[in-house]
Model the fold of this input.
Amino acid sequence: MKKFTIMGIVLFIALAMCSAYSFAESFDGFRGLKWGSAPAKGMVNVWDTSGVYTTYRRPSDALRITTRFNPVDLNAIEYEYHKNRLYRVCLYVPPSRVDWSTISLALSDRYGEPTESELIHDGVLVNERTYNQDPYTTAFLQFEISSHKVFCILDSKRMQNIIHSEKEREIQKKIGKKKTGF
Done:
């Protein structure tokens, strides 16, 4: 009897560890692409700034997000790379209050409850929600109040830190050169 109890406890712990691992893994990227990975085969380059920042699309992408509420159709999904490493995914959503609400609820399910703010972006009043409770990803959902345009950005926390550190080093190099006269 004691042997079965110990085996049951070991099995329970093993299953709990496996499910925790798969839960964490499921958040480390988007649609099979891991944050920091190179562009996948079959991606199409749609924008490039001398190899530093590059934007791709996948022709094979389903332009629909399935949520537990309603499916949401998308205009486009773009994958942004910094020095060939995935750091951002942009979801372009057709203007709709319903899709805004649906995506907002789906993001809350996946990335935790958001903080909310209103800001002026390019002269337009925007409601922005930031979902920052996931260890890998920060999600931003923007809704233009007047036009009902919806825009969703998923950022890799780790890659954003790397990019920020690289920019800081570049600035320090420039400041150091100016001080020494080189």
Q: What stands out?
A: Helices lie at 2-26, 97-111, 157-180. The two ends are 78 Å apart (CA to CA). The chain has one domain: 2-180.
